[in-house]
Description:
Elements: E1 2-7, H1 19-22, H2 27-41, E2 44-49, H3 53-66, E3 69-73, H4 82-90, E4 95-99, E5 121-124, H5 129-140
Parallel strand pairs: 1-2, 1-3, 3-4, 4-5
Bound molecules: 1,3,4-trihydroxy-5-OXO-cyclohexanecarboxylic acid.
Amino acid sequence: KQFMVINGPNLNRLGKREPAVYGHKTLEDLEGQLLEAARELGVGITCVQSNHEGRLIDAIHEAADQYSGIIINPGAFTHYSYAIRDAIASVDLPVIEVHISNVHTREEFRHHSVIAPVTKGQIVGLGLYGYVMALTALVKGED
Ligand code: DQA
């Protein structure tokens, strides 16, 4: 089984970007940690990061046929991208939305996700470990 891990805008700056909020680990560290978890779970992952909405939509479409699920952190697009929401609704795959920070303790505009209603579930505020939890749930959880 193969899973797609999609990180949206500004997540290429993990480790340097607001470390008090997002921690000191880099995107490379995150993807390495996920590859390790995938190996232990006996599945494969493909990691995509882009700052461009259209590229994120393309990655969701690419996952449609060959993949078993998607883990996505849409970054700030979470709060307003109906195009990403529609892309997720267009594929018949389980999708888990991950946020590194606890968006509910932050600015009001981060409290609402336009993505959440078309996902299987959401993991918020548990740091990079949230991605490992999402992958584990997709592999071991019930459909
Ligand atoms: C984020 C939360 C978003 O509000 C923010 O725009 C991000 C990162 C998170 O992982 O905590 O870019 O998705």
